[in-house]
Known about the structure:
The chain is an alpha+beta fold. The chain is built from 15 helices and 21 strands.
Amino acid sequence: MAIGFLVYLDPFAKGSDVRRGIFGRYRPGMKLSVAKTSIDATLLAAMTCDVRRELIPSRVEAVSQRESTKVSLCVRTETGRSWLDLSWRLGTGRVCITSNIPPRGRKEEEKNFSLGGIMRSSLVGLAMVDCRLATALERTVRLDFAERIGCEPVFSVFVELLGPGRNNLILSEVPSMEIKGCGRQVSGRKAIRSLQTGDTYSLPSPPASRLPTTSEELSDFCNQITPLRGETLSRAIVRSYRGISPSVVENILGASQTSGSVLVETLSRGELEPCYALFRRWIRAMADDNCEDFSPTLDEEDRVDVLNFRGAESSNSACKLVDVFCTEEESSSEVTQLKSSCSAKVSGLIKKWKAKADLFQSQSEGLEESERLREEADMIMAAAHTWQEGSETVEYEELDGSVKSFTIPPGENAIGVARMKHRKAQKKKRAIDKVKPLLAEATQKVEYYETIMFELENLGVEDMELLKELKQDIDALVATEKGVVKSKQKNGHVPHNKQKKATSDAMKQVYSFSSEEGSTVVYVGRNSRQNDLVTFQIAKKNDLWFHASGVPGSHVLLQTESGDTVGKDEIQFAADLAAYFSRGRNESSQSVIYTRAKNVRRAGAPGLVIYENEKFIFGKPDTVVALVDSEKQAAG
């Protein structure tokens, strides 16, 4: 059964700056929240119309594949170059003209995917001569490629968007239809259709439901749906006809002001007539494949209305709509997967070092026993002159007159027992001295990895580059923990030009805030690299450095002029930002420490510091929420 393309705007979602309405009212840079991004046959037909109108005919100049479920074609028309996405990813599969040009100079990424190479060697230099649904009202798109315009096709690409486990892209030779490459190899032993290199391609079998025709009359329509007693009207239409999705049915019923929740047996022929009129309009549009019939817009409930049944103004194409929504959905999905993968790795490191810290802590707790043994040894040695040979005890008198008795084992003497206790005390003391730095290291590691986890939690779709940088750092940390680091740096140093560029890029992403008076500038790091940059490169010795106390958070810097006295309001403003950019963000107030930047020193890994001469203040995260949101929107 076809699934509709349904989008809604969440006014409370992170980054959302609109209340409702995007299509026909879309503005560049608008932050959107996508609830569901599935493609039905009607929307696919509209996209193929856009491709035929704008890109047919054209010549293929390049093929790029940097994802396992998407290939992008660069084609040249009389008006210039364009990119066409062929995606078979579940939920966001599409054949769509895109404004997202694949980045250049990353050929290493393409070596992981053989399909892109096969399509590149087969299609580059050929003319793309057609793009349409391979079967009427089905979610399979066919693109034909020929040696020249007007010649017979030599290759065809089929994009099948049939649902979970059935989405695929197939490159076949024409006219033999031999499969040259496919996005997902399917064995004939595991599926009805074998889709493997060398097989003969055949189109998927259509469902058993009725195929609507342009000769469909009102009586035919009524006779088709009314026998489904007990079904609602919307469900009866979807079940009765092939290729019509729930979203199209909802648009038809909404435009005709017909309730879709009414049981079909309660409806008369006259009540079905308005719905039937729009249903016939949909049939004609899909049968004639006339691009002028498609004018995508959003209905009153922000559902995509491909045929614009209500006659609203629409200046956008289906490809533009799908490109915006699917790109955002894929970015969101990629961010979620990256964060999940990174979180699992960091959680493993935290668990590992916490276990070590607990072990070292238990071993270091023998200090009291060491001191007790040393004191007992001193007492026995002091009372050794009172011990008589063969006596089983020796007594030591305290200054207050109390007496302590110590057992002397048979065959031993008091001085020997005292020396034995001294040796045990010294041995425990040496062991504790060795464990203390190990405990400090483990505690520092846990603190550092918890800081990285905090950074992960606060990265969103708009922070993709930061997330990729953090992933590289985490992978390097995991490799270091395993002892398998293979550095490409010469003599262990980063080349100066690369180090300078990395610093420049990090500086651009550091948040900066000004107070309402505009006299105070506060810098906030967003990850370990930026924290290091803020604290040790931007900061001057008399600037004030802030950090949330006892929880992971960002390094915050309040710039001051040398010798100037910093006002309480300025300190409070910086403290509020430090509290907001910490794990204590959801608290009404968060303890914050601050000190001069000259009192802060590195403590190992980037972002880890030790400080002195600190003072405490309570920051209130709620007071800077609006300011931070406006800064994020401006940065986005």
